[in-house]
Amino acid sequence: MEDWAWWLIAAVGLGIPLIVTALPEFAMFAVGALAGALTAVLGGGAILQVIVFAAVSVAGVVVIRPIAYRHRHKPQPAALRSGVDALKGRSATVVERVDTEGGRIKLGGEVWSARALEPDRAFEPGQKVDVVEIDGATAVVI
What are the pLDDT digits (tens) for 4-61? Predict the structure, then answer.
């Protein structure tokens, strides 16, 4: 079997874990295998094929992986958030005294049960608070 065919088999073999695990590193190695196949088609020797495979794979991991990681972990703009994620970071008004035991706030036009994040804090009616997270049906505020 020709060298390029082995590289294509390797590329497919590296593509399967990419699909199963969704780890982008496997894509970098699959692209490296495709580059090795192209080198074989163009008449490069076995050592050159391995060098091209390694160089393309490492370049992909070193250059593309950090970009993909930043893109994946970039915070979503508030306009695109929905559900309880859209409520995090919003301001609310205290309706009933809020402490670590509970209380009520008006958030987005609705009355929510709430509790203070910090154990020694209490908020009186009329005060403005910020929602830091939603725990079930309770807003945690500071």
Answer: 999 999 999 988 888 888 777 888 999 999 999 999 999 999 999 999 999 999 999 8
Phi, psi for 31 (deg, rounded to 5): -65, -35
Q: Report how far residue 9's alpha carbon sits from residue 109's, in angstroms, rounded to the nearest whole number.
A: 58
Give the DSSP per-residue string, the chain.
Answer: --HHHHHHHHHHHHHHHHHHH--HHHHHHHHHHHHHHHHHHTT--HHHHHHHHHHHHHHIIIIIHHHHHHHHTSPPPTTT--GGGGTTT-EEEEEEEEETTEEEEEETTEEEEEEESSTT--B-TT-EEEEEEEETTEEEE-
In whole angstroms, what separates CA 115 from the centre of its chain? 29
Pairing mode of beta strands 128-135, 91-99:
antiparallel
Q: Can you give the pTM of this predicted structure?
A: 0.49
| 1.20.5.110, 2.60.40.10, 2.40.50.140, 3.30.1490.20: CATH of 83-141 | 2.40.50.140
